[in-house]
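Human:
Care to share another protein and its fold?

Assistant:
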Amino acid sequence: MKNTEFLDACRNAIGAAHVLTDEADKAGYLTDQRQRFTGAALAVVKPADTAEVAAIVKLCAQFQIPIVPQGGNTGLVLGSVPDQSGQAIVLSLKRLNRIRAVDPLNHTITAEAGCILQHIQEAAAAEQTLFPLSLAAEGSCTIGGNLSTNAGGTAVLRYGNTRELCLGLEVVTAQGDILHGLRGLRKDNTGYDLRDLFIGAEGTLGVITAAVLKIFPLPKAQLTALAAVQAPADALRLLSLAQSRCGATLTGFELMSDLCLQLVAKHFPQLQFPFAQRHPQYVLLELSDNESAEHASALLEAVIGDALEQDICQDAVLASSTAQSRALWQLRESISSAQAMEGKNIKHDISLPISRIAEFIAVTDALLQQHFPACRNVTFGHLGDGNLHYNVSSPVDSSAEQFIERQADVNRIVHDSVDRMGGSISAEHGLGALKREEILRYKSPVEMALMKTIKQALDPLNLMNPGKVI
């Protein structure tokens, strides 16, 4: 009876067509991106604007119905899908998809939470500016999801995580009130920074409905190179060299193991491998230059030339056109898809002090081989900001399903190694439901107590994305 009354009230608030209760209509919102888990929901509710979001959240508070906010549902830690109880609603924000304003002089763009990341990039580019957040899912992920997980991507080295790209937020609180914080200010020292509470909170404290985001001058040139190196330690030497020579012009620095590109070659044979022979590791560098293409080219050629002379890298190719640059990036961006096509795997989104990455890879690779002989480490990531996607696949010609059953044991080896070296078990994907219990091993009781205090203060009924993060 309570549920019927609640759903009727939702229909009255936003229109019956936007309250989905049929199982076939709900299905696309209930399974996670990796197709590993399917939850259940009382309904999928699709408000059109902030006022409608607030109306739905107020009804949820009144009837004590849990809320699972959802954007593009591209997350990897079960943060945007409901559990299997069927008691919660999925609050889809896809209809909140308007670019509200672009202010080139203030270098800001104001976008609603359901805006596809790529559309924000395009809106900025139309004003001859750059919104630099870039990741593989940018054609389907939404900015609300990016903010809720504090997404990173390939340009963190120069521009920072999503948190650094956000100046102000509009948020619907757990009580259904609207926090009007869309201020495009770079300085506002008037009390607690409420914005930062909601960024990275994965929808557990409130619902982000819009954001003021930083945009930047459009680079005059973007140049890409792929360098072959012997070991991660050499990649770090190349990073140091590139940073010292290029400064803020260096916007991307990605590490890829040879196994990564072998899988890409296997599953995407149409992509051209640029070297005559294989090498143990590869680094993808990108420079974004506000002076000229000639200036960027001279910088990149000098860095690669010095690296070859100092035996830091063994070979390198420099893209001479936009098409060649895209082809090099496509190798990097195809790794996750290639690994998925190879079979189920155990993913780790970790961060480490950059100075310890080479040690971590060597030590943890050896530990995994000791306990899981012939397992395959598909290691790649954003070396410039210390974020590795340290993924582990089953041995060749063995059962991926049986290997996945040992996931907890693999995770323990990897996460304990991360912790010993001062790292984090979640760099840019969040905790969701997948790592909610795991984090208890690595965060101090004081940290967890403070997080729970904040959760209790802002969401005392525990209706906002329950079962996630804490």
